[in-house]
Structures are given as structure tokens and as C-alpha cells.
Amino acid sequence: MFLRRLLPDNFTLTLLAVVLAATLLPASGQVATIFEWITNLAIALLFFMHGAKLSRQAILAGAGHWRLHLLVFACTFILFPLLGLALRPALEPLLGKELYLGMLYLCALPATVQSAIAFTSLARGNIPAAICSAAASSLLGIFVTPLLVALLMGVQGDNGSTLDAIGKISLQLLLPFVLGQIAQRWIGGWVNQNKSWLKYVDQSSILLVVYTAFSAAVIGGLWQQVPLTTLLLVIAACCVLLALALVLTHLLGKWLGFSLEDRITILFCGSKKSLATGVPMAQVLFAGGAIGVLILPLMLFHQIQLMVCAVLAQRYAKREEAPQIAAV
User: Fold this and answer.
1) Contact predicate 123/312, CB 8 Å
2) Contacts of range 195-201, beta carbons closer than 8 Å, 24 or more positions apart
3) Which residues form a coiled coil (predicted)?
4) Could you tell me which of 1, 47, 16, 78 has the C-alpha nearest to residue 303?
């Protein structure tokens, strides 16, 4: 059972297959243009569905826990960028400039929504606070991430200003989300009843973006720039970054006197980064083949955080069962 949790899930295996397909059969010319249009529509649908299935009642239930939310936002948008900058003397010489910028981009992203809530639930943390914190982080990221990218990386969208990048992201991600929230009144129940297969909408849009981005990157010489030894170094860098984030979020929650349930929420919401938000944002913030290199650390970090957090959630769940058994 333990080893099974360390193995990649089906989505990660599919993601690897898409990267392989983009390596062997990259889209180019008119085909690439068609894929870009389909990808933009899929991303809009993804965020519309997020808006339609996210319960406003659940968000309001956890909204009052402002100290917890502030700490999660500080970990997501301050602690991670500081870690990325602190690791620069070691990472940039080892990984090269472009992959190091990919690590910085990873540090600037918002937290995940689904997996942060799922792990908090499994570990018996503060679930309403996790829902509110993760959702707010995702929405804040639409505005904060472009600012952080401009500050950390000197990137200001496709050739425009940071405000232009925020405007593009708001149009592509925030507007569909808001429309989904409005439509929730009519389709929210249907979405919740069919979420078992609607998750493939999320996954398909990410796979489309990855295929399009990696196709452009492969044509631009991605795998000549990232040999196996460099890939292993990126994996090691992601492991170090995640370990530091987990330790520091755990210690901050403890030092600030949060309950165990709240500390679990802080751990899982404050240490995770969103592939679902990060990949579409990269489409807007960066141009051409550079996207493939820049999102490579994010893709690796995504799988590592899922495997590590699955183990941690199980440990927390078992730790909380002990007092109940003793009481009986």
C-alpha cells in the first residue's frame, strides 16, 4: 500500500505520455495554431467548471479564520519566492538560467485547490478553512503571480506591461471562473453529481497545454538543452524546495500557536503549487518555446508534492486516531 502511493498516478503517467508524444510528433505550423485555439477554449472551460463546482457556502464557512489564511498566503507568495532567491547561488550554476527561472516561476504560483483540500480532508485538518484558503490563493494568484514574475524574473507578459499580463490572465482565467460561479445556481448540483467524470475536463486542458508548449519547446531544441543529468538535478532541486517549504510551514504553524487541525491545513495549503493554474498562466506570461523549459520544474514538483503529501496525510490521519482508541 505504501509503495503504491509512491508510484505515479494515472494522470502523471498520461502527462509523461503527452511529453513523449510532443517529443516524437511535435505540432508545428497550422496544426500548432489549431492546437493553440483548442487549448485556449479548454482552459476557459476548465476555470468555468472550477467556478461552477466551488461552493460559496463552504468558502464562507472558512473565511473567518483570517490568521490562518494570512499565514498560508505568506507561505505561498512570500516564503516560496524568498526560498527561490536564497537557493539561487546553488541552483543557477547547476541548472542553467532558463531552468532556474522555471524554479522561480514555480515559486511565484498560487496553491493547488483540489489536492490541498483532499489531503487536508484525509489528514483530518480544518477542511472549511482549507477550501477557503486554497480557493482564495488560486484567485489571488491571477493578480499576484504576474507581479511576482515581473519582480523575480523581469518578465512582463508577451511584450507588454505587467498590467497587460494581469488583464490577459483575468480575461482567460478569472472571467470564466466568475461566469461559473454565476452559473452555479443552475448547474452546481449537476456538476457535483458528475464530478467523477468532469475531472477529465481539468486534466484534458492541462494535457493540451503541455503538448502545445512542449511541441514548441522540442522544435526549439528543448532536449538538447536539458540532458538526463540536468533533469536529475531539477528533480533534486524540487525535492529540496519542497522539503524546506514543508518544514517551515510546519514550524510556523507550531510557533504561532495554531491547533493541530489548523497546522495540517497550513501545511497542505501553504506548501503546494498549482499545475492547473501555472500551465495556463505560462501561456500568457511567456512566449514560444521557452514555455516548455519553464514549466518543466513545475511538472516535476507537482508529482513530487503529491507523493510526499500522500504519505504525510496518512501519517497525520493515524496520529489523530490514537487518542480516540485510548479514550475507548
Assistant:
1) yes
2) 195/53, 198/49, 198/53, 201/42, 201/45, 201/46, 201/49
3) none
4) 16
Of 305, 277, 267, the closest CA to residue 129 belongs to 267
One-letter-per-residue 3-state SS of 249-318: HHHHHHHCCCCHHHHHHHHHHHCCCCHHHHHHHHHHHCCCCHHHHHHHHHHHHHHHHHHHHHHHHHHHHH
- What is the amino acid identity at position 86? A
Name the residue among 116, 167, 160 with its Cα closest to residue 138: 116
For residue 251, count CB atoms less than 10 angstroms from its CB and return exposed for 0-12, middle for 13-18, buried for 19 or more.
exposed
Q: Which of 3, 84, 10 is nearest to 303 (CA)?
A: 10
Q: Domains in the chain, please, with CATH?
A: 10-319 (1.20.1530.20)
Structural contact between residues 134 and 269, judged by C-beta atoms closer than 8 angstroms: yes
Q: Return the DSSP state at 158.
A: B
pLDDT per residue as tens digits for the range 131-174: 788 878 888 888 899 889 888 887 544 444 556 666 766 777 77
SS3 (DSSP) at 188? helix
302: which strand partners?
none
Query: Are the C-beta atoms of residues 241 and 103 closer than 8 Å to each other?
Result: yes
CA atoms of 176 and 159, how far apart (whole Å): 24
| β-strand partners of 156 | 158
pLDDT > 70: percent of the chain: 82
* pLDDT value at 202 more than 50: yes
